[in-house]
Amino acid sequence: TALSTLAGAAMALGLIAGPAMAADQGIVVYNAQHESLAKEWAAGFTKETGIKVTLRNGGDSDFSNQIVAEG
C-alpha cells in the first residue's frame, strides 16, 4: 500500500540521516515532516520487530546542524 511504501522510504531515509544504535537499544530516526504519520509507522515497526524507535522531530536545518555536531 501507499502507507507501507511511504513508511519504508521514511525509515530508509531516517536510517541514512540519523545514527542507528544497536538493535537491543533501538534506533533513532530524524523526522522533519508529518509527526503523526511517523509515530504510526514507528509504532508498527516496533511491534513487528521488537526494536524501539526513538523519533526526533524538528526542522531540516535543526537536524543538519545536529547531525554535523554528532558526527
What would you note in describing this structure?
By secondary structure, the chain is an alpha+beta fold. The protein has a single domain, classed as 3-Layer(aba) Sandwich (D-Maltodextrin-Binding Protein, domain 2). Helices cover 59% and strands 14% of the residues. The protein has three helices and two strands, in the order H-E-H-E-H. It has a two-stranded parallel sheet. Strand 1, helix 2 and strand 2 form a beta-alpha-beta unit. Helix 1 packs across helix 2. The protein starts with a helix and ends with a helix.
Structure summary:
By secondary structure, this protein is of the alpha+beta class. The chain has helices spanning 2-17, 35-49, 60-70; strands at residues 27-31, 53-57. It is globular, with a radius of gyration of 12 Å.
Strand-helix topology:
Elements (H helix, E strand, L loop, with lengths): L1 H16 L9 E5 L3 H15 L3 E5 L2 H11 L1
Parallel strand pairs: 1-2
Number of helical segments with 4 or more residues: 3
Choose one word for the global shape: globular
* Structural class assignment: alpha+beta
Strands in their spatial order, largest beta sheet = 1-2
Integer count of domains: 1
Low confidence ranges = none
**How helical, in percent, are the residues?**
55-70%
The CATH homologous superfamily corresponds to Periplasmic binding protein-like II
CATH class: Alpha Beta
* Radius of gyration of CA atoms, rounded to a whole number: 12 Å
Strand content: 5-15%
CATH architecture: 3-Layer(aba) Sandwich
Distance between the termini: 35 Å
